[in-house]
Amino acid sequence: MAARCKLVFVLGAAVSLFAGAAYSQDSPSLGDLARQKRQQSKAAQGKDAKASKVITNEEIPEHAVSAPVPAGEEGGSSGAASSGEAKQPAEHWKSQIQAQKSQIASLQKQIDQVNESVRFAPANCVGRCAEWNERQREKQQQVERMQAQLSEQKKRLDEMQESARKQGYGSSVYDP
Fold first, then answer.
1. Would you call 128 exposed, middle or buried from its count of C-beta atoms within 10 A (0-12, 13-18, 19+)?
2. Long-range contacts of 137-140 (CB under 8 A, 24+ apart)
3. What's the per-residue H, E or C state across 13-56?
4. Of 163, 35, 146, which is closest to residue 175 (Cα–Cα)?
5. What does the pLDDT look like over 58-106, one tens digit per residue?
């Protein structure tokens, strides 16, 4: 029985030694793999791409001098997207665009209400029909004026969205 215990003990020790040796030779460490990958990517970049220059804060002047505007472009776009203006925060753009959208929706609702209320008198009308029809024509003119305002508001919204997009904000800001 003592010989059996001794044999089991020796076999267990041998198996653990072999298992430890096999485990340590299995794969390179994670750090070695990362170094190897970095070297491979540097070698690939060196073949295909030219050297890139890193610009630091010391190389950038504190007050950027704006480029002179060519003579033909002075009267161009001087809206919110001009390069001379400071970048507005995302929440500013989002709230401005939401407010503009609500104005457009309100104006569209008013146009629809006035349009639905226009009812001309029938041809066989007898009393005050001319006055009634004149009032209906006034309503139609009011709708035309409101539609012109609506198109101006939509144009302003498009300009605001384009300005936000040009400042680098995503669609979640300029099209909420």
1. exposed
2. 139/114
3. HHHHHHHHHHHHCCCCCHHHHHHHHHHHHHHHHHHHCCCCCCCC
4. 163
5. 777 665 444 444 443 333 343 444 444 567 777 888 888 888 889 989 9
One-letter amino acid of 143? V
What Cα–Cα distance (Å) separates residue 149 from each residue in 112, 140, 142, 146, 155? 14, 14, 11, 5, 10
- Measured distance CA(157)–CA(64) in Å, rounded: 30
To the question of pTM greater than 0.70 for the whole model, the response is no
Give me the percent of the chain exceeding a pLDDT of 90: 3
Token pair in block for residue 111: 């146009």
